[in-house]
Amino acid sequence: MSTRILVLGAGFGGLEVSTSLSERLGESVDVTVIDKSDAFVFGYSKLDVMFGRTTLDAVRLPYKSFAKPGVRLLRETIIAIDPATRRVTTDAGVHDCDFLVIALGADYDMAATPGLENANEFYSVAGANRLRDILPTFSKGHAIVGVCGAPYKCPPAPSECALLLHDFVTAKGVRGQCSITLVLPLPSPVPPSPDTSKALLAAFAERDIKFLPNRRVARVDASRRVASLDDGAELPYDLFLGVPKHRAPAVVEASGVAEGGWVPVNPRTLETKHANVYAIGDIANTGAPKAGVFAEGAAKAVASALIARIAGEGAAQLYGGAGSCYIEFGGGRIGRVDVDFFSGPKPTGTYYEPSLALRADKNAFGATRTTRWFGL
Ligand SMILES: Cc1cc2nc3c(=O)[nH]c(=O)nc-3n(C[C@H](O)[C@H](O)[C@H](O)COP(=O)(O)OP(=O)(O)OC[C@H]3O[C@@H](n4cnc5c(N)ncnc54)[C@H](O)[C@@H]3O)c2cc1C
Predict the structure, then answer these.
(1) Ligand 1 center from residue 43 Cα (angstroms)
(2) With 0-12 CB in 10 A as exposed, 13-18 as middle and 19+ as buried, what is 205?
(3) Which residues pair with 94 in a beta bridge?
(4) pTM of the predicted model, to two decimals?
C-alpha cells in the first residue's frame, strides 16, 4: 500500500505541500487534501474586492481546477482530529494516514470583541464582499480601520486598507469631508522593518491618516457608532472596517494539539510533538508572521522532509522563516519588505520603495501560484 499523507486545509500551505509532493512523488504516494470550501481566494484579493477593483467571482480559484497526480482534494468539513492515532473525522467519514499535515489557517473570534458581529470586518471573504456595496455609501464622517487583537494575518494589511480607503474617498471627491484613523495593536506598522514603518508613517502623515499604535479595538457599539479601545478611549465612527481577533479553528483547539492558542512546532522542521504530525502556516506557532508566503515556505520544508523520508530523495530542508510581503501604498504603487525571522538574533526587514514595477512583481507572484496550483 502507498504511503498515505493527509493534508488538512487547502490554503497557501496545503496547496503548496500537496503540489510539491505530487511533483516529486506523483502516483507513488496517496495524498488526500481536505477543505470545507469550494475555492481558494488569495488574502490580498479581499482588499481588491472591497474597494471594487474586481469581483469575487473573478478572484475565486475553484478547487475543481486543482488536479495533481497522486492527490485527491475532498470537499469535507473536519470535525475531529486525533493527533496520536492520526485519525481525522469529517462530516463525510473517517480518514487514517501515515503522515498528517495540519494547515487549517487562522479563524476569526468575533465573540472576543463585543458588538463586532454588528459592524463590518474585511478579513473574511464574505466581509470583504459585503463592504464592496457599503463603501460607496460612505461620503462623510469618521472612518476607523481597527484591529481587535494580535497576532493577525499579514501585518501590513490594515495599513494598506487605510491607504486604499484614502484613495477611494479621494477619487469620489469627498476626502475633505472624511477622517481616517488606523488602530493597531503593534508599536509600528511593520515592526521588523523600521524603514518600512517609517515609509508607512510618512504616507499616513501626507494623507492625514491618524495612526494609533499599541492599541486595539475592545468593543464596538454599532447602535451608537462608537468603537472603544483597550485604553478606554471612545472613537465615534461612520464607517468601521474591522480586523477580528484571530484564533485557531475550534476543531484544532478541541484536538488538544494547540497550546496557548496555536500549534507548537519545531520552527525549523514544523514537527509537532506527535509523531509524524506536522503543522504549517497560520495555525503553527513558528515565530514568523501569519502570511501566505510564510505558509508556503513552511509547506516546501515539510514536503522536502516527507520526500526524503518516503522516497529517500534529497535532504529535508529546514524552514527559513523568510519571505517578501507586498504593500499597497495607493496610487497604484506597491512597496515590498523582505523579512527574515530566523537568520539573525532578531527579525530583520529590508524595504523597497513603492513603485509601479513592484505592482508587476506582485501580479507575477499571484499568477505563478495560480498556474502552479490550479493550472490557470
Ligand atoms: C486582507 C488580507 C490581505 C493579505 N495579504 C497577504 C499578502 O499580500 N501576502 C501574503 O503572503 N499573505 C497575505 N495575507 C495572509 C494570507 O492570506 C494567510 O496568511 C494565508 O492564507 C495562510 O495560509 P494557510 O495555509 O495557513 O491558511 P489558509 O490559507 O487560511 O487556509 C486554511 C484552509 O483551511 C480550511 N479549513 C479551516 N477549517 C476547516 C475545517 N474545519 N474543515 C475543512 N477545512 C477547513 C479553510 O477553508 C482554508 O481553505 C492576507 C490576508 C488578509 C486577510
Answers:
(1) 7
(2) exposed
(3) 89
(4) 0.98
**What is 76-106 written as a DSSP string?**
--EEEEETTTTEEEETTEEEE-SEEEE----
Average pLDDT, the chain: 98
pLDDT digits (tens, 9 = 90+) for 35-93: 999 999 999 999 999 999 999 999 999 999 999 999 999 999 999 999 999 999 999 99
DSSP string, 146-185: EE-SSS-SSTTHHHHHHHHHHHHHHHTT-GGGEEEEEE-S
292 closest CA partner among 32, 53, 4, 15: 15
Q: How far apart are CA 323 and CA 333, in angstroms?
A: 20
Overall average pLDDT of the 218-222 stretch: 98
Task: State how far the Cα of 124 lies from the Cα of 72, in Å rounded to an integer.
Answer: 26
- Grid cell digits, residue 370: 495560480
SS3 category, 115: coil
Strand partners, 87: 82, 96
Query: At 374, is the secondary structure helix, strand, or coil?
Result: helix
Residue-level pLDDT at 257: 97
From residue 204, how far is each of 55, 118, 350 by CA, in Å?
Answer: 27, 28, 20
Q: Which residues line ligand 1 (CB under 6 A)?
A: 9-14, 34-37, 43-44, 46-47, 77-78, 103-105, 123, 153-154, 157, 249, 251, 281-283, 290-293, 295, 325-326
Which of 66, 104, 283 is the best mutation target for the ligand 1 pocket, counting ligand atoms within 8 Å of the beta carbon and taking the most?
A: 104
* Of 349, 71, 63, 342, nearest in space to 200 by CA: 349
User: Is 153:317 a contact under the CB 8 Å cutoff?
Assistant: no
As given in the structure block, the three cell numbers for residue 361 are 512583481
Average pLDDT over residues 155-183: 98
What does the pLDDT look like over 86-130, one tens digit per residue?
999 999 999 999 999 999 999 999 999 999 999 999 999 999 999
